UniProtKB/TrEMBL annotation:
GO-annotated molecular function: hydrolase activity
Record carries keyword Hydrolase: yes
Entry protein name: Alpha/beta-hydrolase
Keywords: Hydrolase
Protein species of origin: Mollisia scopiformis
Top-level taxon of origin: Eukaryota
Record flagged with keyword Hydrolase: yes
Pfam family, one: Abhydrolase_6
Organism lineage string: Eukaryota, Fungi, Dikarya, Ascomycota, Pezizomycotina
Length: 250
């Protein structure tokens, strides 16, 4: 049985794990197993009213891998950074208690232009409690992106991007107001992937979150990678990202 860590892929809002396929295919060729998480908040009906269902979906996958004795590299993207962190609340308690679980461990977290928030923070608080200009909201608690090509895939040709845009789902807006209870990047080795052409989370915001994390926990984000990609380097720069993820797993 392979001793390599296994990747748990946590996409951003509106996205499904299949959007990572250009990168996960390369990881598979390198001998790594990846597990994607699909959010209950994506295409929900009725809409979910907190991020708890998404958190539980991630926790279920992570716990399954850990209980098999394998280590995990948790890869989060965008909104996935929020729920990915919260999914490790019980795991962090185990770490802080000093008790060994006898299972695998979370070897590293990788934030791919993802939100890094403190305890008590929420995505909406990070946005100063104002919806972004490209949010399309309706009365049923649904949020959609106004211009996915420009916001998510601005370094991908429109013909390629269209296939990904057609697969985007709706997202339950109330999840953005849920508050974190844990900041696992303080105690778990973490990598941040800065994406300079990101129009969803501008590079200045990404750098600001990393700086704030380091101020709160000097050992946080011991690895910071930088690329000139959009919000979706797993599509536009899969070879580069796969290389960095394999590095994170070693």
């Amino acid at each position: 049985m392979s001793s390599k860590p296994e990747f748990v892929i946590i996409p951003g809002a509106w996205h499904f794990p299949d959007s990572f396929k250009p990168t996960t295919d390369l990881l598979e060729k390198a001998g790594y197993t990846s597990h994607g998480v699909t959010f209950p908040s994506t295409n929900a009906s009725p809409q979910v009213q907190s991020f708890d269902p998404d958190v539980q979906a991630i926790r279920t996958v992570v716990d399954k891998v850990l209980s098999s004795g394998k280590d995990v590299v948790l890869v989060t993207h965008s909104y996935g950074g929020v729920v990915g962190c919260e999914s490790l609340a019980e795991y962090v308690k185990t770490l802080e208690s000093g008790h060994e679980s006898g299972h695998g461990k979370v070897k590293r977290m990788v934030f791919v232009c993802a939100f890094v928030l403190p305890e008590g923070g929420s995505l909406m608080a990070a946005l100063q409690n104002k919806p972004l200009p490209w949010f399309i909201l309706d009365e049923k608690d649904i949020v959609n992106p106004a211009n996915p090509q420009e916001i998510f895939y601005n370094d991908i040709s429109p013909s390629v991007a269209e296939a990904y845009i057609s697969k985007l789902g709706t997202h339950s807006y109330p999840t953005f107001s849920s508050q974190l209870t844990v900041a696992p990047w303080k105690v778990i080795p973490s990598t941040y992937v800065l994406c300079e052409k990101d129009n969803a989370i501008p590079i200045g915001a990404q750098e600001g979150m990393v700086a704030a994390a380091k101020a709160a926990a000097p050992r946080a984000f011991d690895v910071v990678e930088r690329c000139d990609a959009s919000h979706s380097p797993f599509i536009s720069q899969p070879e580069w990202l796969a290389e960095k993820l394999i590095k994170a797993a070693q």
